[in-house]
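Minutes, project check-in
Item: structure for the 270-residue chain
Input as provided by the requester:
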Amino acid sequence: MIDEIFVCLDGSSWAEKTVAMAGWMAQAMGAKLIFLRVVANADEVAAEESYMRDEAQRSGAHVRFVVSQDAAGAIQEELKKNVHAVAIMATHGRTVLTEALLGSVALGVIRGAARPIILYHPSRGDRGAPVRISTILLALDGSAFSERMIPFAVEVTQSLSARLQLIQALPLRPQIPPLPDQARSDILESSYVHRQAAEIKNAYAIDCDWEVIHGEPVEAICRYVDGIPDAMLALTSHARGGLERVIFGSVAAACVRKAGVPILIYWPQP
């Protein structure tokens, strides 16, 4: 049960694009809404306190300042104090390198939170994250690693009274007339998500839809998500060894940049 939502603000207008969604989620979940601001020193608290409290009053939120030189570590510590809290962050990096794309603070929080967080990557001119979430799209790739997101996606879906849909992206096939063997292959390729939907219903008493989509994973997922209103995408990250700060799950990082929707993202630890 999620009982606190931290909106991680950094003084930028980008970060504020998550506020309306966070307020709706807090109301839907019956959770406490907290505007969390990490500052380097007490002078920054004094400079921003009035503004933060005015913003919080408009949203029915509480304000929490934390003085620290390590923003990612400070947010992690706040999450550790409550295992039922979730953090919402906006990221506004612009390059292909993951740390620059996600921002070192967001990357640090994802890596150390030991639970999913919600990321939103605003584009220029957009009005912000959707105010409400009606569909959770859970991206699975056939691995046990990706399936570690299932209980979290189910929890968020149930807390928001939303719809859960499983999606799996598979490579495109040659454009040739369908043959009997291909028809059997269609059945086999859909069996994974169909089975996962059945297991979720059995384990959590929740119905979910499923869809197999085709194409390069990032493009296929983002194209599909674009057609679903008020959606949130849920997926795990796939870090790879010592290069994790650069290639932090190429699919996950690219979806953050391109999908245009909030993303519930989880970096499971070994």
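Outcome recorded: The CA atoms of residues 81 and 225 lie 34 Å apart.
No further action items on this chain.
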